[in-house]
Specification:
Distance between the termini: 69 Å
CATH architecture of the largest domain: 3-Layer(bba) Sandwich
CATH class of the largest domain: Alpha Beta
Oligomer: single chain
Largest sheet: 5 strands, parallel
CATH superfamily of the largest domain: FAD/NAD(P)-binding domain
Number of domains: 4
Number of helices: 16
CATH topology of the largest domain: FAD/NAD(P)-binding domain
Radius of gyration: 27 Å
Strand content: 25-35%
Amino acid sequence: MGKKVLIVGGVAGGATAAARLRRLDEHARIIMFERGDHISFANCGLPYYIGDVITDREDLILQTPESFRERFNVDVRIRSEVIKIDRNRKTVDVRDASGRVYQESYDYLILSPGAEPVIPPIEGAKSEAVFTLRNIADTWRIKDFVTNSRPKSAVVVGAGYIGIEMAENLHALGLKVSIIELADHVIQPLDPDMAAEVHKHIMRKGVGLHLNRAVTAIRSDEGVYDVVLDDGSVLRTDMVILAVGVRPESFLAKDAGLEMGIRGCIVTDNHMRTSDPFIYAAGDAVETIDFVSGKKAFVPLASPANRQGRIAADNIAGIESTYDGTLGTSILKAFDMTVAMTGNNERSLKESGVDYEKSFTFSPSNASYYPGASFMTIKLMFEKQSGRILGAQITGFKGVDKRIDIIATAIKAGMTVHGLANLELSYSPPFGSAKDPVNIAGYVASNIISGMMKVFHWHDVKDINPDEAILLDVRTREEYAKGSLEGAVNIPLDELRERISELDESKPVYVFCQVGFRGYIAARILGQNGFENVYNLSGGYRLVKMIIS
């Protein structure tokens, strides 16, 4: 008789584990418990159904209990909540839809309970028109409210992935939307300097953005809600979306005495095995390892959850399979802007004590002369000595997905910035450039590593004393007239060779242009004409203006 495997949770990691295990073992008895009504649904697509981008609710349901049962011969039990694990007896207690509690034994148990939305302890957080979004049932409730009550305004509390997506989709339905975020920038894995452009884009769409603000109360007034902020201001609205984050739903594991880790996550080894050799875990409730730093991490993303479920199934079936950590590669549609990230951000690198450097580049998505080309900003983090790639963030409107995936792959492969420069990527004017944005990022970072180009950054500008150093703007006179850094002198790049005598060789020179390329050329000219301390502004004046304005 085959192994008996119980799976707790029928979405992402759980469903993947069940399907993989069946493909590996036709004779295993597999029972999957899901306390909700649906399994294997497209949870990342839920905001887009609310916003009418996805018009058929059935498209969100990838598998029904019936279809999953028929295809994979898995005993799928919905409306069935596992409430207790007895590790000694290798049984679980299950409460079904009628309230009846029964026991089921197992040879192996896979826990994939996911994560639950955090509901802040504030007045009115559980009011009628205050919603969270985690599952299909939440989606139906929000959609029905929007359809039947026809709200004209919404406040979204939290500017993470779900918060931004919900703001976008409610705005698309014609609602006046405001976003409240406790931190100083949106999308916390993103660095503040890269978030600055996202802020401006959100506000250009007519969405209110309230940063560094906390909600202290949500009060009802005859069907309308007052959202009270910590500065005393009040936002009046018809509905509220709470999207302040998630936490692992790991009480089963904790009550069973399994080893617990950071933020209440379930600890596993790289085979996805818990501290009990007969219990595995996968998905958002699991503590993982940051691939770059090697530190423990909580990364609630669908892609890692699916891989972990597959690995758990492999090992139960007798195939040695390991999980080597999480990069946290993610991408977000913020209205019509794309925001993507992979690897470590600056905050993580500073906390880890890594000796790193960074570069900012601004490159076209495809050949700039081809209609429809748009520019993207790439922030690349790398080790100063080795050039090993540590992380990247990209904002733009076209082709961002392709580039972040290339860099994520490069990090997994252990490549350096020199490797990025040498990648041979596809080129045709509608799709790319002969020098792809990834290549450009690699060229710039390689120049920094080799010492061919010294850089300074937007946050260094305030520390430059014009009396002791030269701040040199090499843009055109027309660009300079529209605005420049305080104390800067203007010598356009094309005049620099003829006017180089106007500059004092004994002083350090801080060169800048609009995005960095002309500044690099100017730095090379100066460096080969007797100037020893020349620095180019990474990302150029455009980036400084974006951040500080």
